[in-house]
Write a structure and sequence with these properties.
Layout: H1 6-11, H2 18-24, E1 32-34, E2 40-42, E3 55-61, H3 71-84, E4 89-93, H4 98-102, E5 110-111, E6 114-117, H5 119-123, H6 129-149, E7 156-161, E8 165-167, E9 177-179, E10 190-192, E11 194-196, H7 201-208, H8 212-221, E12 223-227, E13 232-234, H9 241-247, E14 255-259, E15 264-267, H10 282-291, E16 294-298, H11 303-318, E17 324-329, H12 331-337, H13 350-370, E18 375-380, H14 387-398, E19 403-407, H15 409-412, H16 418-428, H17 444-456, E20 460-463, H18 465-476, E21 484-487, E22 507-516, E23 521-526, E24 545-546, E25 552-553
Parallel strand pairs: 3-16, 3-17, 4-15, 4-16, 8-11, 17-18, 18-19, 20-22, 21-23
Antiparallel strand pairs: 1-2, 2-14, 5-6, 6-14, 7-12, 9-10, 12-13, 14-15, 22-23, 24-25
Length: 556
């Protein structure tokens, strides 16, 4: 049998009309807003009242490596596997950002025979949500500069504007700019910059808002900068919240699509987990809980980032209590954590695997002991994985009371995830003692220290003088009771991406702290983390093409 690429598999799939997918969930026709034949938005105000709440399964992963882990593929495959064993399931994913699609990763809609479709649409413009978020972000930026130009009634200090413009593209050239040049009629010159759209606070606000009213209230609380006498200025004071919410009136509605096996899928929102909270929208997750018995969702990057933020921020704000957690790993990735370069991963290497396993085991302990949730490890199996390697992983996990399920969803779809689905169903029936990694009453520094010592297993935190000043100011302003969103490299438990595995005897440096008052959390920036990525030497965009018939290639 000849090998098919992900996009070839997706393009050869026979999709059902989206109305048929909605019928599986008993979604009435008047709640569907069609975007062609295979995509729709859901008007949640027209859904029937929920009789019960579905169980939430969080899929997370070990610390990511270039060898890959397959978290999204596992989410899709597990949803299909639950359907395969007769359960009513929905998957809930984030929308891919154009930055990674054209940058390093390429597409992000699953892989092999565990994909969501229409794959090209999902990876590109989809239903326009990200464009609406970028427009709302930049409307606020325009209103800030116009306010200053028109007389600056609020006394905004142009040197203390914290709001940046946004574009959903990796463009290092826009990280730091000077604008307003060309004379008085072109604005007031100042230093400015761009974030990638998925790092915009508007994205976080949209993903945490429960409805349009909550969205507008959150938008109004956004702090855009400070006055010359050091007082915060909000989007509400600029009278921008209403217009911003109007731009987002459709974007807040969850998007319904399907998997290759016609399992319903909500794909909505897309904050990065290294610089934001890394989860799909609250509206999508809670809507899915109203419509199905099992909701399979994911959080970005490793469990130290996405899962921690899903549990400490999203679940806390939305009142969600997960029933089980799946931790995804591969033999190859664990051997990379054991010090083996990507070019030498084929062939049995138990010594390297033994050295890399502590990364997985630390994530397991965090989920089961810190957060008190039952977990299963899903090993994405590759043909070169040996029985001895798989047995070693199984034995180490069982010593922590966690089972391992081999997943072959990439090649077999839902049937390849039957073992995993059955273990997840079993775990969902067990009682759990879910808790957060810190209480909200803690001071901001203590919350950051709790995450660093409990989750990352670092020795402590060093706060730059600027960060300490910012924390004091935020606590004086009344933001001390907010949860913390850590901005940290995804490639290590530490803030040094070169420290693989399960590093010890390290400290985290917090160089800056800022409040996302609309989203409702405080962001602590560590290391050299940036909110605008750049393209690599050979970007994925070079491989993407379209033929005369409109068929897209190169999105893997």
């Amino acid at each position: 049998m000849s090998y098919k690429s992900d996009i070839e598999i997706a393009q050869s799939a026979e999709m059902l009309p989206i109305g048929k997918i909605a019928e599986k969930l008993n979604i009435p026709a008047d709640a569907l807003e069609l975007y062609g034949n295979y995509k729709a938005k859901i008007n949640i105000n027209r859904l029937p009242a929920a009789e019960k709440q579905g169980k939430v399964i969080l899929v997370t992963a070990i610390t990511p490596t270039p060898a890959g882990e397959g978290k999204t593929t596992t989410v899709v495959g597990l949803g299909d596997a639950l359907s395969y064993i007769g359960k009513k399931a929905i998957i809930a994913l984030r929308e891919p950002s154009l930055g990674p699609v054209f940058g390093v990763k390429g597409g992000a809609a699953g892989g092999g025979y565990a994909q969501v479709v229409p794959m090209e649409d999902i990876n590109l413009h989809f239903t326009g949500d990200f464009h609406a978020i970028g427009a709302a972000n930049n409307l606020l930026a325009a209103m800030i500069d116009n306010h200053i130009y028109q007389g600056n009634e609020l006394n905004i200090d142009p040197c203390r504007i914290t709001w940046r413009r946004a574009v959903d593209m990796n463009d290092r050239q826009l990280r730091n700019i000077t604008d307003g040049l060309g004379g008085r009629t072109n604005g007031v010159p100042r230093e400015d910059g761009f974030d990638i759209t998925v790092a915009s606070e508007i994205m976080a606000v949209l993903c945490l808002a429960t409805d349009i009213t909550d969205l507008k209230e959150r938008l109004s609380r956004i702090i855009i900068g400070y006055t010359r006498d050091n007082q915060p200025v909000t989007a509400g004071q600029l009278k921008a919240a209403g217009a911003m919410a109007a731009l987002l009136k459709d974007a807040i509605k969850p998007n319904l699509v399907q998997t290759l096996e016609h399992t319903p899928a909500f794909i909505h929102g897309g904050p990065f987990a290294n610089i934001a909270h890394g989860c799909n929208s609250v509206t999508a997750t809670k809507t899915a809980m109203r419509l199905a018995d099992y909701v399979v969702t994911e959080a970005g990057f490793g469990a130290d980032l996405g899962a921690e933020k899903f549990l400490d921020i999203k679940c806390r704000m939305a009142g969600i209590k997960p029933s089980a957690v799946v931790i995804v790993a591969t033999v190859k990735a664990l051997k990379m954590h054991g010090g083996v370069p990507k070019t030498e991963l084929s062939g049995e290497n138990l010594e390297a695997l033994e050295k890399g396993l502590p990364n997985l085991l630390r994530h397991i302990e965090n989920i089961t002991k810190v957060f008190g949730l039952p977990a299963v490890v899903a090993i994405n199996r590759f043909p070169q994985d040996t029985e001895a390697e798989l047995k070693l992983i199984e034995d180490k996990c069982k010593a922590l009371g966690v089972n391992v399920a081999l997943s072959e969803v990439w090649g077999k779809g839902g049937a390849g995830g039957k073992e995993l689905a059955e273990e997840v169903v079993r775990l969902c029936e067990e009682p759990n003692s879910f808790d957060y990694s810190y209480p909200l009453e803690m001071g901001l520094k203590d919350k950051i220290k709790a995450i660093v010592t409990k989750i990352y297993r670092g020795d402590g935190v060093d706060f730059a003088p600027a960060a300490s000043r910012e924390i004091r100011k935020l606590e004086e302003m009344g933001f001390g009771s907010l949860p913390v969103c850590m901005a940290k490299t995804q490639y290590s438990f530490s803030d040094d991406q070169k420290k693989l595995g399960a590093p010890e005897n390290f400290r985290i440096t917090v160089r800056s702290v800022k409040v996302s008052a609309g989203a409702g959390f405080v962001v602590a920036l560590t290391g050299d983390i940036m909110t605008m990525p750049g393209l690599p030497k050979v970007p994925s965009a070079e491989k993407i093409d379209i033929d005369e018939h409109g068929n897209i290639s190169g999105i893997f």
